[in-house]
Structures are given as structure tokens and as C-alpha cells.
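Human: I would love a firmer grasp of how sequence relates to backbone shape in proteins. Take your time, and here it is.
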Amino acid sequence: MTRSSTPTLVVVGAGVKAVAVAAKAAVLREMDIAVPRIVAVERTAVAANWRADGGWTDGQHRLGTSPEKDVGFPYRSSLVPRRNAELDERMTRYSWQSYLIGTNQFAEWVDRGRPAPTHKKWSQYLRWVADNVDMNVIFGEVQRISVDSGANGQRWAVHTADQCVDGDGLMITGPGQPERSILPGNPRVLSIAEFWHRAAQCELIAAERVAVIGGGESAASMLNELFRHRVSTITVISPQVTLFTRGEGFFENTLFSDPTGWTGLTLDERRDALTRTDRGVFSARVQEALLSDDRIRHLRGRVAHAVARDGRIRLTLSTNQGAERLETVHGFDLVIDGSGADSAWFIPLLGQDALDLLEIGLGGPLTADALQDAIGYDLAVTNVTPKLFLPALSGLTQGPGFPNLSCLGLLSDRILGADIGAGTEPDDTADRATRRSDEHQPVR
């Protein structure tokens, strides 16, 4: 057994975070800086969640974040002493503006007032970056994640239906699967994917009473789409006391792009900031549309139970009234389950060895809250080796920009600056991740 000269970082999901890390790694490699080999394992396509076939959008809605917050933003690298300015300059070759220039769209975009791109256009940008850095993507749905033990330590093993990809580090991205709903298979209850599939097919919804479950951006995007459909009333169900508007001023935005002072805040201060700016809130643009539409109502509560009865879907809502819990029942003709992404969607995929590894590192049961509290500076779970990077769960401990699009350049710095080590491999074989990925051409 000999030590592999280059460690491998396996990324589950070929979305925006995977593209950002692959781009930064490619630039560092050009600068003769040692970086891990990046291998992404993707179910369908690069940037699929920004397209209609990904299930999270119809591709025609506008990006809520400024497109200038691209894969290198905020271009304030700290990985290479005395060469960070060079690194940032090289990264601008993969910026949003460079994409527009390279595809002859820059002048038109400027002349139109720099509009927010559609989700589909954003996916085209990400695919352009992935193509230009020869991002290594293995296509297959992850079915199990385990830990393999070798002579020189442990490595992650990501299993699809027909192959296994080994890595010295593992990064898990993505919001999970949009097909879930409170009543699967019932035609009067739509999952996020089912709703956007109908929207993409230009199939108008006709119903008297429609309920949308969720108070975050997934629900907000669907409300924005519902305005054009033939519905009489739209009731938004969320646990918040009202539908809050996301803070989008300079000071709020700075928290996302510059997390320097984040760890100096108390946990209560951090939670309050997240509540005001990121979790369970609607963008100002969506709120403005809500104000002009008198079909919108709000019900406070969490859905405790759902049942189909007499041609309707009856939802039991649970709310806290002081020290007591109150339950009420409401009937709807159509329910859209937009309760949002699940940042811990991957836990059911973990094998017993991986579960044991994480529970030992956490010092207790594996839960989303426990993982969230344990995310360190490098966006990995502390006290766990090999490294497990969970940027979607890093907002509370490291800053609100890391789980989303607001500081992708800093995210790639944190992850590529981590020491993920290198595993072992037999003398007469190549690294399994490399061998298997060689069967696929770089994404085009």
C-alpha cells in the first residue's frame, strides 16, 4: 500500500457550491498550488436544481440574489500568502460578467439595466463554469454513504447503483428531494416538484381554496407563480406569527458576504439575525406582490396531520397559545407542500459505520441540530475524521452566507484550505474515484 499523492474530495451534488469549489481548485492547480482532486457525484445534471427538470423551479423565475455574487464572490481570497490578488484575478475569468462577455450577452444585459437572470440562465452560467474548468462529474443517484477503513486511516465511500466513489473528504450539498409531500400520491396534494412540473407545462391550476405550506423562499417562489393561476383564495400556512419580509439592506447583506464578526456574536444574536434575514422570510419583491393581491391569507401553525375527506384535504394545525397547544382543522381544495429544503436530507443515506463515526464525534445522537452546532471554521463537522463538509448547515456557527449563494468564494477558500489528508491505495491500481470517473468525459 502506498499513499496517494493527491487526496480526493467527493462532492454529493453538482450544484453551485460544487462548481465554486471545482473552479477555485482548477485555478489553484494552474498556480502550481497543491489542491485535492474534486469529484462530484450528481443524480441528473450540473446545476439541475436551477432548471425545470430539477423539481425546485420552472426555470423562468428570477434569481433572488445578485448574479454578481458568482462562484468567486467576494474575491477576497486568503489561501495563498502574497498571491491572493493573483488568485482573485484568475477567478474573475469565471465570473458572471466573463460568462456574459464570452457568450456575447454582456452589452444587452447592461443596456437592459442589469436584470436578475432567470433560474435557467443562472444554470447556464454554472454549466459554462463547469465546462471551462473540466469539472469531473460522475452521474448516478447516491444510495448509500459509508466509511471504509484502510491501513492508513478511513475514507468516505459514496455508493450509487453501479459504482463506488472513494474520497479522503466528503462535501454534501443540495436541499434534498423536492418530491416529498404530506400526502404522497394524492392528486389534491402537490409536492414542490409536482407543482413546478405543472407550471413548466403551462398547466394552469383551477381551485377555490388553495393552501401553501411554508414561510420560506420555496413557498414564496410558488406564491409568485400562483398569482397567475385561477384560484379564489390562497392561504399561507407557517409557524411564524406573520409573513415577515427579508432584510435586504446594506447592513443585512454585509452579514452574508463578510462573516468576519459573526463568531463574536452570541448564539441568540445569531439566531435573531438568521430569523430576520434568511429563515422563514419572503423577499421584498414577493412581499410587494402579496400586498397587491387580496386573495392571500395567512394561518399560523404547523401541520400536525393531513387527511383526504369528502373531496377535500383537511389539515390539522397545531399552534402554541401561551402554555397550551391548540389544534384547529381547515379544509382546502388543493394543498401545495412548500415546506422547503431539508438541510439534513442525507442522514437516511448514512450506513451504520458512518452513523457511528458521527455520533462519536458529536458525543451524542445524530440530529440536524447537533450537526449544525458542530460545524467548524472549515465548514466541516468538528472532531470527525475523515472530514465531512456540510455548508448547508454552517449558517449558525460560521455565517449566513455559506448555506446559500452569498459568499461562494469564501466557501471554496474554507473547504480547500482544510487538511483532508490522503488515503491509501494498492500499488497496482489507481484511486477508485479517478478510475471510475475516467469512464465519463468532463461535463459539457
Residues 16-30 form the longest helix (15 residues). The chain is about 30% helix and 20% strand. Residues 423-444 have pLDDT under 50 and may be disordered.
